[in-house]
Amino acid sequence: MTSRAVGTRRVEILRAAAELFAARGFHGVSIEELGRAVGTSGPALYRHFPGKESLLAAMLLDVSERLAAGGRERVAAAADPREALESLLRGHIAFALGEPALITVHDRELDNVPEPERRRIRRLQRGYVEEWVRVLAQLRADGRPELLRATVHATFGLLNSTPHSADEVPGEQMAELLLDMGGAALLAGG
Q1: How many Å apart are CA 187 and CA 190, to the nearest integer?
Q2: What 3-state class would DSSP assign to 169?
Q3: CA torsion angle 63 65 68 71 (round to 10)
Q4: Per-residue burial over 80-112, b = 16 or more CB atoms within 10 Å of its CB, e = otherwise
Q5: Using CA atoms, how far apart are residues 22 and 101, in angstroms rounded to an integer?
Q6: Is the pTM of this model over 0.85?
Q7: Per-residue model confidence (pLDDT) at position 128
Q8: Beta strands of the chain (E only): which ranges?
Q9: Which pLDDT score, from 0 to 100, does residue 29 have?
Q10: Is residue 68 situated within a structural domain?
């Protein structure tokens, strides 16, 4: 199997696992069920991941790395802080609407990730938040980092709540609604 095929298979496994873990919880899904979800046996998954915990860790590390890298790229490509903020919002909204299972899994299952990987996930997440804080500090007069950080976390709560309601509103309309609401929340009081 080529490295590209292995990478594609790995992504397929991570996606299936995210859906199963979101629906039934980490402990409610067996390795055999994970294998069946991707058309193989449970033990065959050990070629890709040493165990279920490492699969969960890889899933949450992957999303944390993608968000952090995407945030840095969006800010670097923006002409000014306002454009950077809109780009960050659009990127996070695309993630929230496109991968709601990952939000659910992260919220419920991070404590099941082994400690070294959990620390790395948290470090990546803090870096992602700080990218938003740096942009927001340029747009708000009340630029106290602790206030800006709290504002970013509250806005993530708003954006990440979409797994509970995204099916009720067409995707493009929901994205625009979240963009308006997220922008208002981030700039409130500033």
Answers
A1: 5
A2: coil
A3: -70
A4: ebeebbbbbbebbbebbbebbbbbbbbeebbeb
A5: 5
A6: yes
A7: 98
A8: none
A9: 95
A10: yes
How many domains does the chain fold into?
1
- For residue 155, the tally of other CB atoms under 10 A from its CB is 23
Specify the CATH number for the domain of residue 153.
Answer: 1.10.357.10
Angle at 110 between CA 105 and CA 115, to 5 degrees: 150
Q: Identify whether 39 is part of a domain.
A: no
DSSP letter at 171 equals H
Which positions of the chain have pLDDT values less than 70?
A: 1-7, 163-166, 190
Which structural domain range is residue 130 located in? 53-187
Cβ neighbors of 48 (< 8 A, separation 6 or more) are 6, 9, 10, 13, 55
Q: CA dihedral defined by 120, 123, 125, 129, rounded to 10 degrees?
A: -170
Residue-wise pLDDT tens digits, 51-65 = 999 999 999 999 999
Summarised one tens digit per residue, pLDDT across range 26-45 is 999 999 999 999 998 888 88
